[in-house]
């Protein structure tokens, strides 16, 4: 077997290393196979000729990490805007999703993976149905993902069992696949869509497979009130009682929390995926992110699905996170730019229980992006971290590497057929409409 080594030396680059004393350095980054093996201001000594890449005018960042979403919902982008969560789900999303075929999920996911890669996201978490199709897209695209079959348990015991078996089989079959780029989790959709005894079964599966749990939690005020009516407890205490937090857990949203609930999440090491764009669009509220971070909770960023956002631009989520908490608290330091960037990268990796991704340093996986800094809205070059959070967008991403392989070059995807995906996704939406 012919073994070829993949080695790159990036020179003349500006790199976000995010250390407290010197967050940005100018110099060199060496990539060997799937890893960063050197990053620093001095040119590394090399005993062989390797491919050099000129990073002049580019700002290199860790690949962005989107910790909550439902990517196949790109097919429903713009279908059912300006509604609150429950109405949006019950009257718009669920009736349409009931008609989704595996093929729809494939093309919807491909459209989103394309959007994410071109926009600088290198890892995403996805909770949905027909997850084999999402996994297939991830495998082909070269992207990294944490995948989980989300289960809504508002159905007969037989169907509940079938869905749980399917979620278990998916989690088992795909964990570690695609050269380790895919990992899996276990996901009851939410406390309001899964009865307590059903959630306990997911906890048991997570224990059996040694996997983390991901679920929606405390997204709206109405959901919290309904939980108290139905079970006599707010969602945090309810999930704790059912054993969910006995597993490594990532909850999405966590908008409506008391001080005591923040302490419970911190004490149990529960991570939170903050989805500012989706929470604003669905009028769910503003999560208590500064308090969560202060209590020691890992808070990362997610877009949620493309139908409640309505894009998958993680630069936008970082900017929103940095801005809305200043407005909500009156404190300009509520979420500084550097913290927002960490939420979109390093804390994202921690939330997904992934080791070796989320920062640019020797030994880490080579998941990184380059943005073109020589554009009017990114000049002058005062503060690159500030520009990445407050001025940049997904459209500024020039190159993307995942696992040491370049997947986006000058904005073009090297792994997926963009033209075909655009055509098939539009056709899939039209097919859905025709069947509805
Ligand atoms: C069972 S697969 C995932 C399921 O979640 C739905 N969904 C999308 N966005 C949200 C959200 O913000 N809160 C709760 N549920 C959401 C999606 O439509 C799928 O049915
Ligand atoms: Zn969601």
UniProtKB/TrEMBL annotation:
Species in which this protein is naturally found: Paenibacillus sediminis
Molecular functions (GO terms): 5'-methylthioadenosine deaminase activity; S-adenosylhomocysteine deaminase activity
The keyword Metal-binding belongs to this UniProt entry's keyword annotation: yes
Annotated substrate binding sites: 97, 149, 189, 219, 304
Residue numbers binding Zn(2+): 68, 70, 216, 304
Record protein name field: 5-methylthioadenosine/S-adenosylhomocysteine deaminase
Required co-factors: Zn(2+)
Signal peptide interval: none
């Amino acid at each position: 077997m012919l073994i070829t080594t993949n080695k790159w030396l990036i020179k003349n680059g500006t790199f976000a290393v995010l250390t407290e004393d010197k967050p940005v350095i100018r110099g060199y980054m060496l990539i060997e196979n799937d890893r960063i093996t050197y990053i620093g201001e001095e040119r590394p000594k090399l005993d062989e000729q390797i491919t050099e890449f000129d990073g002049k005018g580019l700002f290199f960042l860790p690949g962005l990490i989107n910790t909550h979403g439902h990517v196949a919902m790109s097919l429903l982008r713009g279908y059912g805007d300006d509604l609150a969560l429950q109405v949006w789900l019950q009257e718009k999303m669920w009736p349409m999703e009931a008609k989704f075929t595996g093929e729809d999920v494939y093309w919807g996911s491909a459209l989103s993976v394309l959007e994410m890669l071109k926009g600088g996201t290198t890892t995403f978490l996805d909770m949905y149905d027909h997850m084999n199709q999402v996994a297939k897209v991830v495998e082909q695209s070269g992207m990294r993902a944490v995948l989980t079959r989300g289960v809504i348990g508002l159905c007969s015991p037989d169907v509940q069992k079938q869905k749980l078996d399917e979620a278990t089989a998916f989690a088992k079959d795909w964990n570690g696949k695609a050269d380790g780029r895919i990992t899996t989790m276990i996901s009851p959709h939410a406390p309001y869509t899964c009865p307590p005894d059903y959630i306990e079964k997911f906890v048991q599966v997570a224990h059996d497979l040694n996997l983390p749990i991901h679920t929606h939690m405390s997204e709206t005020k109405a959901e919290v009130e309904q939980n108290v009516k139905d079970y006599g407890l707010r969602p945090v205490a309810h999930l704790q009682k059912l054993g969910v937090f006995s597993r490594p857990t990532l909850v999405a949203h966590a908008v409506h929390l008391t001080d005591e609930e923040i302490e419970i999440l911190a004490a149990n090491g529960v991570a939170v995926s903050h989805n500012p764009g989706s929470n604003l669009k669905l009028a769910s509220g503003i999560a208590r992110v500064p308090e969560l971070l202060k209590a020691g909770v890992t808070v990362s960023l997610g877009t949620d699905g493309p139908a409640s956002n309505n894009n998958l631009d993680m630069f936008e989520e970082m900017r929103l996170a940095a801005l809305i908490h200043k407005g909500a608290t009156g404190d300009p330091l509520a979420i500084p730019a550097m913290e927002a960037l960490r939420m979109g990268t390093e804390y994202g990796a921690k939330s997904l229980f992934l080791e070796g991704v989320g920062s640019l340093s020797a030994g880490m996986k080579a998941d990184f992006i380059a943005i073109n800094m020589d554009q009017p809205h990114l000049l002058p070059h005062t503060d690159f971290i500030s520009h990445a959070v407050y001025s940049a967008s997904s459209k500024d991403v020039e190159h993307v590497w995942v696992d040491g392989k370049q997947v986006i070059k000058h904005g073009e995807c090297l792994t997926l057929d963009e033209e075909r995906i655009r055509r098939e996704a539009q056709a899939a939406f039209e097919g859905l409409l025709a069947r509805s």
